[in-house]
Design goal:
The protein has three domains: 92 residues, Zinc finger, CHC2-typedomain (DNA Primase, Chain A); 125 residues, DNA primase DNAg catalytic core, N-terminal domain (Alpha-Beta Complex); 81 residues, Dna Topoisomerase Vi A Subunit, Chain: A, domain 2 (3-Layer(aba) Sandwich). Helix 3 crosses helix 4. The protein contains 13 helices and 14 strands. The strands form four sheets. It has a five-stranded antiparallel β-sheet with strand order 1-2-3-4-5. The chain is of the alpha+beta class. The two termini are 30 Å apart. The structure holds zinc ion. Zinc ion binds next to loops.
């Protein structure tokens, strides 16, 4: 990844960033001579051995050896990917990110905007649509309060072939954008058909909290499939995304453990019962991509699936996939 951003840009970025400021807003620092000190955020300690040098723009921990510049600090502390850390610092310093070869940044940006609009629309329908009561009843039967439903941005896709598409078109979206965002497809007569109709909607957020896809649960018992997700899009790759991970991380500053469950309702229902650290894969079996991602966030993973045959098979599979990642200790 690093090679895709010009070194000149990284140099310029790091020369503009003040590492002391970046760290101090997250870990309060105390001046000690030329440097600044704090208790290390990367290991448990009572006397400070974490030092930050404003001159060298480096941090170093004499206890655990953690060491790096502003990009490294954000990656370690906020658990960001390299590009995301660079982007955050660029925003902080007012530098414009360079165009990365092969990047479809423009398209992604546009799609993200329409996904936000769609998310607002679904959320509003849950409050205002004439047939909203069925959705509200379902959520209440599952024991959810309005507060939890809000925290997860739960919404309602009303019945009708193109209610969302029409709304987005009125706001200026092109049919191509609506389809690329995974919100609708085109029928033989070239009409847009919403993907989600008469369903409870669960926005799927990426690790930075941006809505990148949706999951929908059918309200009518006879409808197949009962659960439907957005298709693969330039933004949504279901084999590596985890529902609830962003929400868990934003609720708990230093997550110790994550519980992997089968579906969105499990995640939301556990949060309702004060277990706000569950995540779910999105209609796929646990993959190495998932495990890698989860182990970057916590060292303690619990898999909790249904007790039926399918659930047990999923449990064994998760164990198989996770074993190669285990290390001594
Ligand atoms: Zn340390």
């Amino acid at each position: 990844m690093a090679g895709r951003i010009p070194q000149e840009f990284l140099d310029q970025l790091l020369s503009r960033v003040d590492l002391v400021e970046v760290i101090n807003t997250r870990v309060p620092l105390r001046r000690a001579g030329h440097d600044f000190m704090a208790c290390c955020p990367f290991h448990a300690e009572k006397t400070p051995s974490f030092s930050v040098s404003p001159r060298k723009q480096f941090y170093h921990c004499f206890g655990c050896g953690a060491h790096g510049n502003a990009i490294g600090f954000l990656m370690a502390y906020e658990r960001l990917e390299f590009l995301d850390a660079v982007e955050d610092l660029a925003r902080l310093t007012g530098l414009e990110m360079p165009k990365i070869s092969g990047d479809d940044g423009g398209l992604s940006h546009t799609l993200l905007e329409w996904l936000i609009q769609a998310s607002r629309y679904f959320h509003q329908q849950l409050r205002e649509h004439p047939t909203r009561q069925r959705a509200v009843d379902y959520l209440q039967r599952r024991g959810l309060t309005g507060q939890i439903a809000n925290a997860f941005g739960i919404g309602y896709a009303p019945p009708g072939w193109d209610t969302l598409s029409r709304t987005l078109r009125q706001h200026g979206a092109t049919p191509e954008q609506i389809m690329s965002a995974g919100l609708a497809s085109c029928d033989e007569q070239n009409r847009l058909r919403d993907r989600f109709r008469d369903r409870i909607i669960f926005p799927i957020r990426d690790h930075r909290g941006r809505v990148i896809a949706f999951g929908g649960r059918a309200l009518d018992g006879g409808v197949n499939p009962k659960y439907l997700n957005s298709p693969e899009t330039p933004l949504f790759h279901k084999r590596s995304e985890l529902y609830g991970l962003y929400e868990a991380r934003s609720r708990i500053r230093h997550l110790q453990r994550l519980v992997v469950v089968e579906g969105y309702m499990d995640v939301v229902a556990l949060a309702q019962h004060d277990i706000p650290y569950a995540v779910a894969t999105l209609g796929t079996a646990t993959s190495t991509g998932h495990i890698e991602r989860l182990f970057r966030v916590v060292t303690d993973l619990v898999f909790c699936f249904d007790g039926d045959t399918a659930g047990r098979a999923a449990g064994w599979r998760a164990l198989d996939v996770a074993l190669p990642f285990l290390r001594d200790g």
